[in-house]
Design brief:
The chain is of the alpha/beta class and 333 residues long. The protein has 2 domains: 168 residues, Thiolase/Chalcone synthase (Peroxisomal Thiolase, Chain A, domain 1, 3-Layer(aba) Sandwich), CATH 3.40.47; 153 residues, Thiolase/Chalcone synthase (Peroxisomal Thiolase, Chain A, domain 1, 3-Layer(aba) Sandwich). The chain is built from 11 helices and 13 strands. The strands form 4 sheets. It has a 5-stranded mixed β-sheet, sandwiched between helices. It has a 4-stranded mixed β-sheet with strand order 8-13-12-11, sandwiched between helices. Strands 2-3 form a two-stranded antiparallel ribbon. A hairpin with a 3-residue loop joins strand 12 and strand 13. The longest helix is centred in the last third of the chain and has 23 residues. The two termini are 26 Å apart. The chain binds oxa(dethia)-CoA. The site of oxa(dethia)-CoA has 19 residues, from helix 2, helix 6 and helix 8.
Length: 333
Amino acid sequence: MTTYRSRILGLGAYVPPRVVTNHELATLMETTHEWIVERTGIEERRWVDEGEGGAEMAAKASREAIERAGLQPTDIDLIIYATLSPDHNFPGSAVFTQRLLGLKEIPCLDIRQQCTGFLYGLSIADAFIRTGQYKHVLLIGSEVHSTGLDLTTRGRDVSVLFGDGAGAAVIGRATDEAHVVLSTHLHADGADAEILWTDRPGSRHHPRITAADLEAGAHYPKMEGRKVFKHAVTRMPQVMMEGMIVNGLKLDDIDMLIPHQANLRINQMVARMIGLPEDRMHNNIQKYGNTTAASIPLCMHEAVQLGKIQPGNLVCLVAFGAGLTWASVFLRY
Ligand code: UT7
């Protein structure tokens, strides 16, 4: 049986035009620009305007990724869509993006591994390419957080963190060793699932949501920030080491680290813990906040545009998120 390897053929990104600064948030809740910058590094984020959804943002990012891959939308034979904020309860958002791209009948797969979603999706795309089942996979991470945040002081620990945006990649067959996905490493542990979650509406509640739940804010994301922080700074270095061992890599071999953008302090700590100089890590959380499944493609796309990632460079992607889930991907761009 012929087996293939995969590579990233093109990247795309889209963020909504509306900029929301920390100062604007401070008019809605008891917080300050200084607190947010000191604890997280975030200076501003983007929010969708009314009427714009995740699937529309995804379609915009996808068109760019497909064009950069030198392909037409009709060349895509599978869509994988990672999000924790689907446009609707069901069906998943991938079919809406498929429709916007003018595509018909190709399979659409929605996955939900939160901040780790894009890396889980990359692993799935890689597996499909390896078997030869699909030739061009469109992988999307797209999130609309702004419509689901508690914008009062009660929700300030979470609401200042998140932003809206979309990133996309076209994954296709590698033709040489210089541009190839080397390995993917996925993990999850449900023991602490409730330290970062949104409980309602949920099908295990009957009814799924009540007026009292709405009053109590049970439909807003909840996080035990310190616990999540500790997990993040433990798991991300671990899963990077795992990939380095599998590929026989030294730290010096990594040209650029693209970590999930949850908190600049987390990423600085991870870089320090593994001994990677900060100039070999790219962050853009300052401008976009945490865009969950969109954060890695948004950050990688920017690093490529800035020339920080060159063709053939060895890139490590690493993420951590709700579930809890964590993963790394090593590739030659
Ligand atoms: O993407 C998924 C993964 N997510 C993460 O990795 C996030 C991980 N966690 C974090 O990044 C940090 O825990 C946070 C940035 C969320 C919070 O920082 P912290 O240093 O852990 O603060 P804290 O939650 O311990 O809160 C410290 C104080 C509290 O006040 P008291 O009890 O000391 O009086 C909070 O009420 O800061 C208060 N606080 C705020 N103050 C101003 C919490 N949120 C805010 C806020 N503005 N937005």
